[in-house]
Amino acid sequence: MDAFRDPDISAVIANIGGHDQITILPYLDGDVLREHPTRFYGYSDNTNLALFLWNHGIVSYYGGSTLLEYAMDGEMFEYTEEYLRRVLFEDSVGEWTESEVFTDEAGDWEDPESVTTTREIERSDGRIWRGGDETVAGRIWGGCYAVIVEQFLADRYLPDPDALNGTVLAVETSELVPDPAVVGANLRALGERGLLERFDGVLVGRAAARSHAEDHPREWRVGYRERQRDAIADVLETYNPNAPVVFDCEFGHTYPTCPIPIGGEVEIEPATESIRLP
Q1: Three-state SS annotation for 116-136
Q2: What pLDDT was estimated at residue 106?
Q3: For residue 37, which of 3, 83, 85, 86 has the smallest C-alpha distance?
Q4: Vertex 231, ends 162 and 183: CA angle to 5°?
Q5: Rounded Cα gap, residues 97 and 56, in angstroms
Q6: Is the dihedral of CA 115, 45, 258, 212 positive or negative?
């Protein structure tokens, strides 16, 4: 709260997430945050803070954090640096282009050399477009799949369902590498609650397919991402078949990333397979 109150601080960037972050939300003062809408940057468990800010009308940015991206590999990805500079210093991000490469390799923080060691880089096959073919625009709501599920299980800090009408869902799974069938089942539960039909479009971050605790060969990772895409697409086809859905977007637990505005506008144009962040 002090960082938000301080007039000399124009942005707060999270070092990391925190599995129990939902427990600090009762101690936040929404009125103070509205009076001092400092830009907040973070992802993963920081979805708790991002959605709390969303509920109070404050835009935050679902982007990298200091330890997990900005301090790794000796230097930031050029793609990450470019979009971070746009979000920090320019009035508009503009077209959100694809990255030609990515990694989901987790760094070993117990090894000091990991900070300067380049992680395994893979070529990207590009984004995958499914669903409707009409251009849509709306405010972004969402973040990390695991946190969204946790908030619905807790049944706290949730927006009024009507507030989600016409918004765009952004969702990505974490380094926990959840079973695609479980991801589909939990999204189906949101569909049964009448929520998935409210979104005009869906952005899905490229799935991380390995973690600090468990690695997998490339063939397994490719198959995992395909199974997850299919599970999500099947659910959306049932509950919101007209919404354009874009898979393997550059946000979440694979890198590089573009900080996307939770609460800010996005335009999705299937005809040209382009995304703009005004």
Answers
A1: CCCCCCEECCCCEEEECCCCE
A2: 77
A3: 3
A4: 65
A5: 30
A6: positive
The Cα–Cα gap between 214 and 20 comes to 22
What tens digit of pLDDT does each residue of 232-251 get?
A: 999 999 999 999 999 999 99
Query: Using CA atoms, how far apart are residues 150 and 132, in angstroms rounded to an integer?
Result: 29
Strand partners, 92: none
Residue partners of 23: CB distance under 8 A and separation at least 6: none
Name the token pair of 189: 């539960």
Q: Residue 113 burial by CB count (10 A; 0-12/13-18/19+): exposed, middle or buried? A: exposed
Task: Tell me which of 13-17, 221-225, 245-249 is least confident.
Answer: 13-17
Which of 221, 52, 243 lies closest to 143 in space, CA to CA? 52
**Euclidean distance between CA atoms 140 and 222, whole angstroms:** 27
pLDDT in tens, 43-63: 999 999 999 999 999 999 999
**Is the distance from CB of 128 to CB of 273 less than 8 angstroms?**
no
Going from the N-terminus, what domains does the chain have, and what CATH number goes with each? 2-277 (3.50.30.60)
Place of tokens 């793609």: 79
Q: Distances in Å between the alpha carbon of 46 and those of 56, 64, 68, 234?
A: 16, 10, 13, 28
239: left (phi over 0), alpha (psi -120 to 50) or beta: alpha
Question: Residue 181 and residue 115: Cα distance in Å, rounded?
Answer: 34
How far is the CA of 65 from the CAs of 61, 85, 256, in angstroms? Answer: 11, 14, 12
What is the torsion angle, in degrees rounded to the nearest 10, for the CA atoms of residue 95, residue 165, residue 245 and residue 204? 80
Beta bridge partners of 129: 246
Chain centre to alpha carbon of residue 1: 23
